[in-house]
Every structure is written in C-alpha cells, then in structure tokens.
From TrEMBL:
Keyword terms: Methyltransferase, Restriction system, S-adenosyl-L-methionine, Transferase
Domain DNA methylase N-4/N-6: 2-242
Protein known as: Site-specific DNA-methyltransferase
Phylogenetic classification of the source organism: Bacteria, Bacillati, Bacillota, Bacilli, Bacillales
Biological processes, Gene Ontology terms: DNA restriction-modification system; methylation
Native species: Geobacillus zalihae
Region: Disordered, residue numbers: 71-90
Molecular function terms, GO-annotated: DNA binding; N-methyltransferase activity
Pfam families associated with the record: N6_N4_Mtase (PF01555)
C-alpha cells in the first residue's frame, strides 16, 4: 500500500491489527519527486511510503532483486581460477575467539596474525582446507594478508532490497504521468498513476513465473502493465486480476473529453495499448496479453419473491426465470462461478444451425442456453463430450420445445451415460 505522511501512521496501525505485527515486513520509501515545491510552507515532501505486509511471514515467498550487472563488475579473475570471476573478503573478524587466533605463513614466507582485537574467520583446520582448495588469496605477489575468495558463481543471484527506492531506480510521478500520456495520444487521463518500474520492482520482489497478482484499487492498471512487461522480460506467465470501481471521470478532465467516462474504461484501454506496445517493442508475438472483463452484478436469475395478492401473475412471470436484460454470456459466466470453475477456463462456442452450444473445459461441461432446444441440438452436444469423463450438461429449463422433448432429451443423454444434467 502506498500512502503519504498524512495517513501513514493510521494505516500502519490498522494494518498491524489486520495482518498482525509479526507480519509487518517493512515500509519502503519511494522518492516520488526530486525538485522542491516552494509553495509548500514547511517541507516539500518528495517521498511516499510503501507499506509491505505478509499474510504469514513464515510462508512468504520473497525473491530479492535481480543482481545488477553493476554489482557483477566487482568480480574478476586475476589468477585464472577455473571456477570463474571472484572477489575477496576479509578473513579476520571480531570479537576474537582464542582458538581462531593462529599464525599463517604467506607464500612469500611472511608470518601473519589477525589484527589486534580480531581473530580469523575460520579454524586452523578449516583454513587448511580452504587453502588446499585455492580459496585463499595472498595478493598478486603472494605477500599480502590472506583474504577469502568469493566466487560469483556461488553467491546468491539476487540481492536484498534497500528500503529507500530512488527515482533513478523506480521512476518518479512525473515519469509515471509521461509514460501514461505516451499511451494515450498525449492526453493526461489519470492524475496520480504509479510508474511501471515501481510496480515492476514490487513484482520482482514477491512473484515468480505462474503467480497471480491482484490489485483491488487498480486505477489506470499500471500493475497489469508491469505484469506484462515483466513477463516479457523474464519469460514468466504471471496473471493479473485488476479491480476498479466504475468511478466517474470529471466532465472537465482530459479523460472524459477523450471518451473515458469512468476509470475502468481507462484501465481497460491501458491494458490493450500497453500489451500491444510491449509486443511491438520486444518482438515477442507469443506474449499473452489477452484479458477478460467482468462487471459485478446481481444474479441473472429472477428471485422468487412473490406478491401473494398477484400470485398468478408472478408465477407466469417466472416461467421465464432469466432476467430480460441479460445476455447468454452473462448467464454462462454465472453458471461457471456456481459450479466452481475459474473464469479463465477455455470455452469453445459451437454453432448449431444458428444456436450456440458452449463447450467448456474440453467437453467436460456442455451448456446450451437457447430457447427452442430440440433433440438435434442435444445430439450435437453429445458429439463434443469429453472422452475421459461423462460431462456435466446444463440446459435452459424454459428452453425446451415441449415436455416431451425434455423427457426424450434426458433419456438420450442417459443412454450415453450422462446423468449429471441440470437446468437453469
Ligand atoms: C489512486 S488510484 C490507483 C492508481 C493506480 N496505482 C495507477 O497507477 O493508476 C486508486 C483507486 O482506488 C479506488 N478506490 C479508492 N478507495 C476505494 C474503496 N474504498 N473501494 C474501492 N475502490 C476504491 C479509486 O476508484 C481510485 O481510482
């Protein structure tokens, strides 16, 4: 969670209560600006706080940041060690432990001891092993105080992040506005977007290949942009779920004038444009930039809430139990949710003489929500059933041509071993 100093103390207390103090990881400081604003009387704030909590610290997947090439340049290979580039570290530590104080003879014949108040990092026996393994460095001339070789190939490939994140590393808010403008024909469609780099760093620290990233205040969908960008860079297959209220844009704003009446519309278009841009820039045409959009709504199925004074009318009204203003797709996705399938499950639309059959998850669920369902349609559904398991079949209750057709359909399905037939 990103917040400034007005509310950070309250947010920290709320989060400690919700997540538990033990699950507090840290507060990162994001340098969101660099030039002072002299209008501000007392201080020109140029940082935000990024509060970081784990659901449960013990189980937190935390990956650190990729080691930059800059860090790697500290490694070299002056003695042509076959294990590759290395750097050397101090062999002495304090406070001293008596059994770790002993003499070492350098190749040049000089006798050395640890400095006063220190001892060697390892025991005499361990030192002998390290020396035999060519892991001790006495300098080019063989006369210097011994140091321990640390090979690049053996150090962690990631580094632990510092808590201060500078704008050079993760961009500032001006950059963020600029990168969003570039996607929207120079229109400023969102007031305070986050930089893609900032979001990418958070993702690098806490996610890997197949993780799902949820941002429930997604705004202009910077998080989705960063997910696609990072996938393109490291070959990952992370997925995102963005949630945003259809908060109206101000009628005087650039966003409104450009046709985006609410923030969801901005987010959706951002995802489309960012996806295309990343594919273009990286040439990775197989990058998954697809997404589905869902709006939260009440059920598509009418409630049974009869008015007992008008029972006859209400009963007739419920003959068709699907709300009039809803589409077949609306109903399809409600069914998927109700039977516990993810909304990303593969769905094939089969056209049968102008009527649609949904083949869900490779024939394991077959759904038809048409009116005038007849036996031909049922036969067509059978053709697509999974070979591996008897499918679930879901049909629209009021869709059957007649009761006789319904009875026949059920019998036909049963003959083929399909007994899990439901109607909506
Ligand atoms: C500042 S935006 C996020 C910006 C985003 N990081 C970006 O880069 O574009 C936060 C969004 O959260 C939404 N929001 C704020 N409070 C909310 C609440 N209580 N429930 C749901 N949404 C909320 C607002 O609609 C707002 O658009």
């Amino acid at each position: 969670m990103s917040i400034d100093d007005t509310e950070v103390s309250n947010l920290k207390k709320i989060c400690d209560e919700i997540f538990g103090e033990v699950n507090f990881i840290t507060i990162f400081i994001w340098q969101r600006a660099f030039a002072p604003v002299n209008m501000n009387k007392f201080a020109s704030r140029n940082h935000d706080f990024v509060l970081c909590y784990a659901k449960q610290t013990d189980f937190l997947s935390w990956y650190g940041l990729p080691r930059s090439q800059e860090a790697d340049t500290r490694y070299s290979n002056p003695d042509n060690d076959p294990r590759g580039p290395w750097t050397s570290g101090d062999l002495s530590v304090g406070p001293p432990v008596p059994e770790k104080i002993y003499e070492i003879v350098t190749p040049s014949g000089r006798v050395v001891y640890p400095p006063k108040g220190y001892c060697w990092r390892v025991t005499k026996e361990r030192f002998a092993e390290l020396l035999a393994d060519n892991r001790i460095w006495f300098g080019k001339d063989g006369d210097s105080v011994p140091r321990l070789k640390r090979f690049l190939s053996e150090v962690k490939s990631t580094i632990t992040p510092l808590t201060v994140w500078t704008h050079q590393e993760v961009s500032h808010s001006q950059d963020a506005k600029k990168e969003l403008k570039e996607l929207f024909e120079d229109q400023s469609v969102m007031d305070y977007p986050k930089p893609v780099k900032l979001m990418k760093r958070i993702l690098e620290l806490s996610t890997r290949e197949n993780d799902i990233i949820l941002d429930f205040f997604s705004g202009s969908a910077t998080t989705a942009h960063a997910v696609m960008q990072l996938n393109a860079e490291d070959g990952g297959n992370r997925k995102f779920i963005m949630v945003q209220l259809p908060e109206k844009t101000d009628e005087t704003s650039d966003a409104y004038k450009a046709g985006y009446k609410n923030i969801c519309e901005i987010g959706k278009e951002r995802i489309r444009r960012a996806g295309e841009k990343i594919v273009q820039e990286t040439g990775k045409t197989d990058l998954d930039i697809g997404f589905k959009v869902f709006k939260l709504d009440s059920s598509n199925i009418k409630e049974w809430d009869p008015d007992f004074e008008n029972l006859e009318r209400d009963l007739f009204d419920l003959q068709n139990n699907i709300k009039e203003d809803r589409t077949k797709e609306d109903l399809l996705y409600e069914i998927l949710l109700k039977i516990g399938l993810p909304l990303t499950v593969p769905i094939e639309e089969i056209d049968c003489r102008g009527k649609t059959i949904y083949n869900v998850a490779y024939g394991s669920v077959l759904i038809c929500l048409e009116d005038e369902i007849d036996l031909d349609l049922v036969q067509e559904m059978l053709k697509h059933r999974s070979e591996h398991m008897p499918p679930k079949v879901i049909l629209k209750e009021s869709g059957f041509m007649s009761d006789a057709v319904k009875t026949n359909a059920l019998q036909t399905l049963k003959k083929h071993g399909i007994t899990d037939v439901r109607s909506v």
